[in-house]
Amino acid sequence: MFEDQLKEIFKILFNINEREIEMNDSPSTIPQWDSLAHLKLIIEIEDRFKIKFKTEEIPELVTVKKILDRIYEIKTKEEK
Amino acid sequence: MEREIKIALLSNITIDLLVDDIKNNIKEKGADCKLWVGGYNQYKNEILNENSHLYKFEPKYLVIYLDTNDLFAFINSKLIEIGEDERKVVSDDLFGEIKNIIGLAQARLNQCTILINSLYIPAVNILAGLEYNSLLSLKEMVRNYNQKLGNLATINDRVIIYDVESLVNEIGYKNFIDERLWYLAKMNLTKEGIKELAYLISRTIISLEGLIKKCIVLDLDNTLWGGIIGEDGKNGIKLGPDGIDRAFVDFQIELKNLSKQGVILAICSKNNYADALDVINTHPYMILKEDDFSGIYVNWDDKPTNLKRLAEDLNIGIDSLVFIDDNPFEREYVKNSLPEVEVPEWPSDPVFYKTALMELYKKFFFKTRITKEDKERVEMYRAQGQRIKIRSKCSSLEEYLSILEMVCIIKLNDNNAVSRISQLTQRTNQFNLTTKRYTEADINNFMKDKDAAVFSLQLLDKFGDNGIVGVIIMRKVNQEAWQIDTFLLSCRVIGRKVEQAFLGTVLKKIVKTGAKVVIGRYIPSAKNQLVSSLYKELGFEFNGNEGESSLWKLDLNKNIIKIPKYFKIEADL
What we know:
The complex is a heterodimer. Chain A is mainly α. Chain A is built from three helices and no strands. The radius of gyration of chain A is 12 Å and the shape is globular. In chain B, strand 13 (481-489), helix 22 (498-512) and strand 14 (517-522) form a beta-alpha-beta unit. Chain B is globular, with a radius of gyration of 27 Å. Chain B has helices at residues 19-28, 43-48, 53-57, 68-71, 73-76, 84-108, 139-155, 164-171, 173-176, 179-185, 191-208, 229-232, 245-260, 273-282, 303-314, 328-337, 353-365, 372-393, 397-403, 418-427, 440-448, 498-512, 534-537; strands at 4-11, 32-37, 61-65, 113-117, 159-162, 215-218, 264-270, 293-299, 321-324, 406-412, 452-461, 464-476, 481-489, 517-522, 541-546, 549-555, 567-572. Chain B is 42% helix and 20% strand. Chain B has 23 helices and 17 strands. The interface between A and B is medium-sized, with 12 and 12 residues.
């Protein structure tokens, strides 16, 4: 469920319609994903999933998979 | 799209994330914009360096956003050390520096209006307990800066403050600022902060561009008061000092405040006219009186029909109406039959009417200045109603015009009228030969230019002062010829031959400069068909087409424009 929502954010933010978002997508496969866009992406994800990343991990979250894993991690902690 | 507005953004933080929101907000109002964003903290350099990108870009609006935390960072490191007396000096100096760069930008961008924010007051600082209990206040320093900034805007037409202090008060510091992003990217706004700040900047620009509405049309039952007059009777409706009744009173108070800013109010209600008027005129808690409404349409006809009548009688576009009704059926009906009318969703709980109105204000009626005409508009539209009555009694137009006792006051380069003149160029669509939109800065420039002349027309008649209702901007082509850059009349005085009196008087002045020929131009737009043959009717000769526009020539030696006898002219040229 989180996966679909996350991919949807990517599609809208980077205006990608012609293909699916892959787990290993990163700034090297999505050229629009520059540092400014990264900021936008993080703000959007935090807002959609109602989570807050730690400041120091934000620059590290540079593949779809890394972001998704972190979302699950935070959400699981919340449930406990 | 008709226009593309050039906007430059400068800041002491990374401000790029505002761009999309600003573009979208302005696009929603039917205008395109081109944005250029200065790099992080480059605002001083961009302004100081005369070869900078900023000056190459030549923006119409320069938006400066200054973040308090960053601006006061140097003070933060010695918050306690700075003595009580020094604090004001520090704040004054900070303001002085900003004032200087504003002045410099203005001098180098003489077409540009500068938007700058009031500073939010930092919510969290180490002085929290001392703020009001000692003279060691940070708030006081910020307030001093804000106050001085406000003073600057009241004396400088081309500086507009957008009020971030109030915005942060409204949404809350913690919802506005996100410290984490500051450390990562020199950007400290939350998602909400970005959205709200962009909206504030957008609506300020939208307002300056004149893309705002004119009239609020109100339902009565369950809108201006609670309950239904036909069933509950005058003493049964909810309108009074206590409880829910008070919500309707408060809603009316805010409507009245809006009308004082020049928003026209009108009523559109399915009711018996006498019942409704009885409440309006005699209910002790009715804040809005009959005189506050420029049009009252209380009958059993459907609402779209009444709205069309209203727009026609007041001579305003149907797209300048905002329709408020508690009944979702009526809203849907109006939305579907008159898509040009703005029909906002409306809360079902009257307690929120006032808040909903504030949102409408932000969206459709936001203003940064109130002109004299804004204040008098409601009175003027009521007088218009009286004129329509008299007109219907006259057997000819000539008879009607002669009993109006019209006086034209025509002024040249009147500094006091800059704001109104700009407003007219922004808003006038029908009687507007070239539909050129000018800011206050543009008008000021024409006034200073010796090869241009800005004429304004104020029209009085026996029913009152119509205010400034006409503008002609003349530009010199050469020793012998002048061209009419702008010729417009407010729609409320169309049909009174006032254009003859106005242009006739202006050309008398132009002849005195030694000019022999005047060139008029008609640029067709979606709305100015009315004046397509105006120059022909005034005695100009057709002088060819240029693209879509037609050119018209008047030989001043052969032809003069006759000023109809029922005008008294008072010209200060």
